[in-house]
């Protein structure tokens, strides 16, 4: 069993015991009737987040951006896009977030900037410009073709020809997102300055976009072909998956950068601990774990996307959790992701009962959970008519189903037109889900059977139970194949989680555990006391049981 690294008082740190809630700022709350969410809108909903029981909010990018990739194309790392508000709005939001007892995590996008960023404008102005080498430029092959076979995640080659300089530049994503050259010390210094800018303002941490992409093979070797097992189980395989991505990201030199970044963050720990969590889509678990650093001196956590990759059945999920537990370096803290702005919504993947089971799994596993706005309501993917489509990935690769608009639609606050996200007479940037009249905060608040009530209960238990927020994890062997059962324990507190992934009732004999008290069930028809020798779980039911130890 892995220990946690407590603070000097012996308590877990905020990002270990806490729950992170991701806000996609465009879609959370519009305060100025332009159909796009903004910072004052988020500030006006902090009381909701506080009452929900989450601990930190992560904001997807709020920086000036031409919005080719909705903010993941940054044109200025130390300012706020006017569509989201002003720097004064940001400072006010941060102060109010802290006053509400919450932390604020910003998105940091180090791999690429916007092609409109002044650095790139200079870089492409001439081969002799001092900033030319701030980006990944390379000469054509003798026949004029791109320097190698690397592909853009969003489709097509990763190289764009630039007539003025007579070279290609690398873009791992859109051509409007040129990759920075992190081997240039001036780039690293400028990016760390941007990090310090926000830390000085008081932010609590960063979510680092495609953190493993920043260092590539210095020889720019071709990627070999792959059998193509796909990056995301929920997205179909595209051209990108025809290669083994050996050389276009994840060069071992990446670790030096994160060791240095950790020192930057650590230099602020005196006031309060700051953190960095990296978006790292790696499923070779040894390699994934290497981002914690050999001495836990790199990222505080690499996001764990394993649950998005495994089959939704008990044995596969347990195997994944056990693998992650086994591979964690001593003292490293786990985490689990089940949803975000790039993934199909949970009820659209597993159905509503499956989404309730998923809520219990995510909020009872050992490790930091990251929720995505609207998960707590059971928001599902929203079909987007072709003329309302926004996501550049979906538009570039039509027919593959890779568009991410369905999971980015406005938050559903109430049953008024536009769900309280924006006034009724304003067209929101993406359509509001047709189910908003029943799936919304106001309606679900008063319904004991709602998803929101289930989340409230689970979050409240997680917060008050040291076993759940920072105890050990131990799988229980005596469970049927379709059930995943585990214990969470800290000191003399022990809770048992039993999850039935099947559509049939399951009977469990867990005699060794005596009797227990049902704390939460994903269904509502449960007696409070239960004999573990004869525990029956309904289809897709999960129960959280307090054991007397
Ligand atoms: C990962 C982000 O989550 C995604 O939304 C974005 O499009 C790419 N990185 C490129 O920045």
CATH architecture name of the largest domain: Alpha-Beta Barrel
Bound molecules: 1-deoxynojirimycin
Low-confidence runs? none
| CATH class group of the largest domain | Alpha Beta
Report the portion of residues in β strands: 15-25%
Q: Tell me the helix content.
A: 10-25%
Physical arrangement of strands within the biggest beta sheet: 9-8-7-3-2-1-11-10
Mind summarizing the main beta sheet? 8 strands, parallel
Number of helices: 15
Q: Looking at CATH, which topology of the largest domain would you report?
A: TIM Barrel
Number of domains: 3
Distance between the termini: 18 Å
- The beta-strand count equals 19
Main traits of this protein?
549 residues; alpha/beta; TIM Barrel; Oligo-1,6-glucosidase, domain 2; eight-stranded parallel β-sheet; six-stranded antiparallel β-sheet; 19 strands; 25% helix; 15% strand
Condensed summary:
With 549 residues, this protein is an alpha/beta fold.
Folded structure, characterized:
The two termini are 18 Å apart. This protein has 15 helices and 19 strands. Helix 8 (285-289) links the parallel strand 8 and strand 9 (301-302). With 549 residues, the chain is an alpha/beta fold. Helices cover 25% and strands 15% of the residues. The protein has an eight-stranded parallel beta sheet. Strands 12-13-14-19-16-17 form a six-stranded antiparallel beta sheet. It has a three-stranded antiparallel beta sheet with strand order 4-6-5, with no helix packed on it. It has three domains: 14-110 and 193-212 and 269-456, Glycosidases (TIM Barrel, Alpha-Beta Barrel), CATH 3.20.20.80; 111-181 and 216-249, Oligo-1,6-glucosidase, domain 2; 471-547, Sandwich (Immunoglobulin-like). The longest helix has 19 residues, at 346-364. Helix 6 (185-201) runs parallel beside helix 7. The protein binds 1-deoxynojirimycin. 1-deoxynojirimycin binds at residues 69, 72, 109, 173, 209-210, 279, 341-342.
């Amino acid at each position: 069993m892995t220990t946690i690294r407590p603070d000097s008082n012996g308590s877990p740190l905020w990002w270990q015991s806490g729950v992170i809630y991701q806000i996609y700022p465009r879609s959370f709350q519009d305060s100025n009737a332009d159909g796009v969410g903004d910072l004052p809108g988020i500030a006006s909903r902090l009381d909701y987040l506080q009452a929900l029981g989450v601990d930190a909010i992560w904001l997807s990018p709020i920086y000036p951006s031409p919005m080719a990739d909705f903010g993941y194309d940054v044109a200025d790392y130390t300012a706020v896009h006017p569509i989201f508000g002003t720097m004064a709005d940001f400072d006010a939001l941060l102060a109010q977030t802290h006053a509400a007892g919450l932390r604020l995590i910003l998105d940091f996008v180090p791999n690429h900037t916007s092609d409109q960023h002044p650095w790139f404008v200079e870089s492409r102005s001439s081969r002799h410009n001092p900033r030319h080498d701030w980006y990944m430029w390379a000469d054509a092959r003798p026949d004029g073709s791109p320097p190698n076979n690397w592909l853009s995640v969003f489709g097509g080659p990763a190289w764009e020809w630039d007539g003025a300089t007579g070279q290609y530049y690398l873009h791992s994503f859109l051509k409007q997102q040129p990759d920075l050259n992190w081997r240039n010390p001036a780039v690293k210094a400028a990016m760390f300055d941007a990090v310090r800018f926000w830390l000085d303002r008081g932010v609590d941490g960063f979510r680092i976009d495609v953190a493993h992409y920043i260092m590539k093979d210095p020889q720019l070797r071709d990627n070999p072909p792959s059998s193509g097992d796909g990056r995301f189980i929920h997205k179909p395989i595209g051209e990108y998956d025809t290669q083994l991505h050996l050389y276009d990201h994840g060069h071992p030199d990446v670790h030096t950068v994160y060791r240095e970044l950790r020192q930057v963050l650590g230099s602020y720990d005196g006031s309060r601990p700051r953190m960095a969590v990296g978006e790292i889509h790696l499923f070779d678990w040894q390699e994934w774990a290497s981002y914690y650093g050999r001495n836990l001196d790199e990222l505080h956590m690499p996001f764990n996307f394993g649950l998005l990759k495994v089959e939704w059945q008990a044995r596969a999920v347990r195997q994944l959790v056990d693998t992650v537990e086994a591979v964690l370096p001593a003292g490293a803290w786990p985490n689990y992701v089940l949803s975000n702005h790039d993934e199909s919504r949970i009820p659209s993947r597993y159905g509503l009962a499956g989404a309730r089971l998923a809520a219990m799994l995510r909020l009872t596993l050992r490790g930091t959970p990251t929720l995505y706005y609207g998960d707590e309501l059971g928001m599902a993917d929203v079909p987007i008519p072709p003329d309302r489509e926004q996501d550049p990935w979906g538009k570039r690769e039509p027919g593959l189903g890779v568009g991410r608009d369905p999971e980015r639609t406005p938050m559903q606050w109430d049953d008024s037109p536009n769900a309280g996200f924006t006034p009724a007479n304003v067209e929101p940037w993406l359509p509001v889900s047709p189910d908003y009249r029943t799936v919304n905060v106001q309606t679900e608040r008063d319904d004991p059977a709602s998803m929101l009530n289930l989340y409230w209960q689970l979050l409240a238990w997680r917060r008050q139970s040291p076993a759940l927020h920072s105890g050990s994890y131990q799988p229980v062997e005596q469970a049927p194949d379709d059930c995943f059962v585990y214990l969470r324990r800290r000191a003399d507190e022990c809770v048992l989680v039993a999850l039935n992934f099947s559509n049939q009732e399951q009977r469990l004999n867990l005699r060794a555990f005596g009797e227990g008290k049902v704390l939460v069930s994903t269904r509502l028809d449960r007696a409070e006391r239960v004999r573990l020798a004869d525990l029956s779980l309904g289809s897709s039911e999960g129960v959280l049981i307090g054991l007397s130890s």
